[in-house]
Amino acid sequence: EWLLAEGHCVAGALASVTDGAMYAAAPVAADEGWGLLFKESYKAMLAQEDGTEKEETIDESAILKIVAAGNRPPQGLWIAGEKYTITRQEEDEVDGAAIKIAVAGRPKKGVVIYITSVGTIIIGMFDETKNASQTMGNCRKCVHAFCEYMMGIGF
Question: Of 151, 145, 105, which is closest to residue 3 (Cα–Cα)?
Fold first, then answer.
């Protein structure tokens, strides 16, 4: 809920860098955060390089683990059954510690992902259709501030 307080993120989650599994999501009411950010493994038809489609299993936790390692997943970034295009992957510093950042989007919405030096993945989601102030820049400021807070308490 801390990540959502300013209204710049529609949802947020924490996951483990070891397996990409989410262990907390907000908003908490009616499990709304889980619905916006996670879907159990599922099958989807994915376009192949030769123009055909092939059914593949989408494991969002495994995909998030690949992103957390600083790589681009071959199937793309999938969150709650929706495909996002990774537009940026970079390294930064928070309180003197190196962190990895990934930014991904789809029309009118996106995610900002920070990976702390101690193995916590922080995900902030914005949706411009829900609130005009929910932009990538505003969401990133909130995720950055939350990352500082989390690292300050050892996460």
Answer: 145
